[in-house]
Amino acid sequence: MQEKMQMQYMVVGFSHKNVDISLRESLSIPEEQIVPFLQEVNACDVICESVLLCTCNRIELYLSVYDTKVAKKHIYECFSKKSGIAIQTLEQVALVRLNEYAVYHIFGVASSLDSLVIGETQITGQLKSAYKLAFEHSLCGKDMTRLMHFAFKCAASVRKQTEISAHSVSVASTAVSMAAQKLAANNQSLESLPVLVIGSGEMGRLVCKHLLNLKAHITLLSRTYANAQNLALELGGDKIVVRPYEDLRVLLDEFSLLFSATSAQGYVITQDMPNTLASKRYWFDLALPRDIESGDMQSVSYHNIEVFCVDDLQEVVQEHKQAREESAKAGKKIIEAFTCNFFTWLQTLSVEPVIKHMRALAKESAHKELERAIKKGFLPAEYRHNVEKILHGAFNTFLHQPTMRLRQASESHQGDPIIEAMKSMFDIDDEIVMLNSYKCERDTTF
């Protein structure tokens, strides 16, 4: 039964658009656990391939499946088992997209049009890493490779043909911009300001770069001291002081501005750690799960401390969004075109087995009749080679027009019935998703 079903693309996701940060924290999967999680996802018979994209703003599965209903049920069970969140809750908040809408969504993610910060620079690299991890562990193959190839081409076209990335932005740069705004409101500046940065990963590196551009003085901490040292050297040492991670508790009271972006699975800063000070402090938590415990922000220990997580960057995000509105509109049109082209290309692939099979049948029939004619004495055996050439030319001439028409049909939305009829007549089965009159309508969720 399964082999008669068509492969379908599917997205099951939890992002900043539909799930708050506390729920995303519970759903977040550490990098070292992604492969086992995907192996559990792929254990379902109807799921063929999967890729997991896990960032501070989204936890999304990209899949090729044979039965969407069974696949969704299994995926919710996997997430529920991993996170402890009830399946009913997951069903209520999950974003689910199928086929053309799934592809449009993935192309939008790759092109940063679905990001919290539209035009951010990190997401394409994060998606490439997610695909690479799944591919290297044989968790995805042909289906996702085809899709990701188009996704990255689409992202490159959006960057090249629009102004959406004219000024490099990211969650890190947005957080630094927001910090600058908060300081300016109190007549302060980042220039020469001592700033504490916790974490030496990609997000920490970006935070440091943007702070250095504004001439801040950075004290850097990392659970791996050597990583902090290497980052300081990479970014030009003299403006970055590396301190041992064990100094964190003491350092919390020495800085008015703090950025934390570690990959820790528990809190790095707990409510009992800071002392009450008269001066105002701004802490930016860019990690998922969050680094800073924020259960009771009215507690005495958090007096005069404002804590911001990635979901709190909206005031700066809105400025970016308005500035990039025209580029975003142009980008969406590019994504629509790439989505149409992707399915047209897939359908073109689906017609080749039909053409190949037709030609094979014609050749087999011609050779069969030739052998019968020689066996019955209708034709001398020494004429075999010349007659083969004549027959080959005859069936090539006969099949030329039908072959051209089939290829033309494969590039149009009206070609589905023709191709499906030919596949049925010649008993050809494949796993290609047909267009089904897909019109590439824009998904208004972007």
Poorly predicted regions are: 432-446
Top CATH class of the largest domain: Alpha Beta
Work out the helicity level. Answer: 40-55%
Return Rg in Å. 29 Å
The quaternary structure here is single chain
Query: Order of strands side by side in the largest beta sheet?
Result: 7-6-5-8-9-10
Principal-axis shape equals elongated
Site (Important for activity): 105
Pathway: Porphyrin-containing compound metabolism; protoporphyrin-IX biosynthesis; 5-aminolevulinate from L-glutamyl-tRNA(Glu): step 1/2
Family: Belongs to the glutamyl-tRNA reductase family.
Domain Quinate/shikimate 5-dehydrogenase/glutamyl-tRNA reductase: 187-316
What are the key terms here?
446 residues, alpha/beta, Beta Polymerase, domain 2, Rossmann fold, 3 domains, six-stranded parallel β-sheet, four-stranded antiparallel β-sheet, 10 strands, disordered C terminus
Note down, in words, how this protein is organized.
This protein has helices at residues 21-27, 31-42, 68-83, 87-93, 99-110, 123-136, 142-161, 171-185, 202-213, 225-235, 248-251, 314-323, 325-375, 384-410, 416-425; strands at residues 8-15, 47-54, 58-65, 95-98, 194-198, 217-221, 240-242, 257-260, 281-285, 305-309. It has 446 residues and is of the alpha/beta class. The protein has three domains: 8-168, Glutamyl-tRNA reductase, N-terminal domain (Beta Polymerase, domain 2, 2-Layer Sandwich), CATH 3.30.460.30; 171-313, Rossmann fold (3-Layer(aba) Sandwich), CATH 3.40.50.720; 344-426, no CATH class. Strands 7-6-5-8-9-10 form a six-stranded parallel β-sheet, covered by helices on one side. Strands 2-3-1-4 form a four-stranded antiparallel β-sheet. α10 (225-235) links the parallel β6 (217-221) and β7. α6 (123-136) packs antiparallel against α7 (142-161), α7 (142-161) crosses α13 and α13 runs antiparallel to α14. The two termini are 37 Å apart. The model is unreliable at 432-446 (pLDDT under 50). It is an enzyme of class 1 (oxidoreductase).
